[in-house]
Amino acid sequence: MRQLEFNLTAKVLAFPPSRRRSFVRKVAETIMQNNDDDAERYWQAVVDGIAWPMLNAGVPRPIVEDQVRKFHDAVQQQIYLVEDRAGGAG
């Protein structure tokens, strides 16, 4: 009888940052409350806080970059939503 061997590996991202709605809202609110320079520094700190733990856990860089991009899109969508509800103020 023949024995089959399987080498299956998978990287599962249990809590994608873009799906963490309260985190997305908090980041969007903080960005909107700061001037451009402070908002940029805050955003870089957030991105570092998302990316480095994933990279250190062995998540491939393209996946990390994709997750950061999706998180960016979620934050931008939240900002637009808040500004739209406020009548475009912001």
Can you describe this structure in just a few lines?
With 90 residues, the chain is an all-alpha fold. 66% of the residues lie in helices and 0% in strands.
Structure description:
With 90 residues, this protein is mainly α. The protein has helices spanning 21-33, 36-56, 61-85. The longest helix is centred in the last third of the chain and has 25 residues, at 61-85. The chain is elongated. Pfam families: DUF6074.
Keywords:
single chain; 3 helices; 90 residues; elongated; 66% helix
Distance between the termini: 70 Å
Which term fits the overall shape? elongated
Counting H and I runs of at least 4 residues, what is the number of helices? 3
Classification by helices and strands: mainly alpha
Beta-strand percentage range = under 5%
The stretches of 5 or more residues where confidence is low (pLDDT under 50) are none
Query: What is the overall pLDDT average?
Result: 89
Query: Biggest β-sheet: count, sense, barrel?
Result: none
Number of domains: 1
Give the total of beta strands.
Answer: 0
Element layout with pairings:
Layout: H1 21-33, H2 36-56, H3 61-85
Helix pairs in contact: 1-2, 1-3, 2-3
